[in-house]
Amino acid sequence: MPPISSSPDAAPANDANGSQAARAVTHVAAPFWRVLATSGYGLWAWLGMALVLGRPDGRSGTLVPLAAGLVLAGFGLVLACLPGRGAAHDWYGWQPYRDSRPTRAALLAFVTYLPMLAVAGLARGDNDFWATRLAGAALALCSLASLAYNHYDHRRRWLRPAPPPSSQQFPLRRVLFAGYAGGLCLWAITVAQGQQGSPFLGMPWLAVLLGLAVVTWVTEAGAWRSLGRRRPARTAALRSARWVSTLLVYAVPALAIMLAMWIHTPLLAAAVAAPSCLLGRWLEQRQFAAVRRNDIIR
């Protein structure tokens, strides 16, 4: 992320120490909460699509993933609302302590909470009620819309020069990672709950996660090559760190998924895969920021 001083809402110049503290907090926290939010919306999208099909069964099988997605998606908002210097960063362009009205991107993120609450109230039994399926469809659509628009709004507000035409704005890399990381989180939660009949267990789901890992890695590798052609010196300096983040985001989860295909107790594999992916992605996004400097992280 760019330093907070590049924002129109940056701290005054005469508060040098406070401004430096705010920039330090923002530089570390912003990529972190964005990674968590992307994963949370990806988890909600998968859960919503499963509810359209009448799965998963049971109230706990729905409420626990919903709550986990709420923690992931809402972490940045909680961080922005904390008093003190930690609240210097924005949440989708909105700073609660400074702005009276949320941005459109923040409002869209809020709108996603409505079908989430509807699903929480309707989930029970086999989740075959038409209203539950409708709420699940709304949850999936709103989650995908939030992923897409918040990406666009972030580029439109901070990227210099102006962003490319709207035909090039669909955030394929962001949506792929949301599906990948959200799927890993949903897999870990399902394994921890011991729901043997869940669609988020078994070989088909593990194959989907493995395929998403490969496709996401290919798209990110292409982005790094494109960035390396523009800024070869900065990219070469971070080559070792990039390998570490690549191992954490893709190699470790993929190995855990393959091990889970042959072992009968995949809890350890799932518990390693999801945190490794999130940690590696945070490191990867910081590397993007270090290379691009005044550009934004997608």
TrEMBL record:
<feature type="transmembrane region" description="Helical">
    <location>
        <begin position="201"/>
        <end position="219"/>
    </location>
</feature>
<feature type="transmembrane region" description="Helical">
    <location>
        <begin position="105"/>
        <end position="123"/>
    </location>
</feature>
<keyword id="KW-0472">Membrane</keyword>
<keyword id="KW-0812">Transmembrane</keyword>
<keyword id="KW-1133">Transmembrane helix</keyword>
<feature type="transmembrane region" description="Helical">
    <location>
        <begin position="240"/>
        <end position="261"/>
    </location>
</feature>
<feature type="transmembrane region" description="Helical">
    <location>
        <begin position="32"/>
        <end position="54"/>
    </location>
</feature>
<feature type="transmembrane region" description="Helical">
    <location>
        <begin position="170"/>
        <end position="189"/>
    </location>
</feature>
<feature type="transmembrane region" description="Helical">
    <location>
        <begin position="129"/>
        <end position="149"/>
    </location>
</feature>
<protein>
    <recommendedName>
        <fullName>Transmembrane protein</fullName>
    </recommendedName>
</protein>
<feature type="transmembrane region" description="Helical">
    <location>
        <begin position="66"/>
        <end position="84"/>
    </location>
</feature>
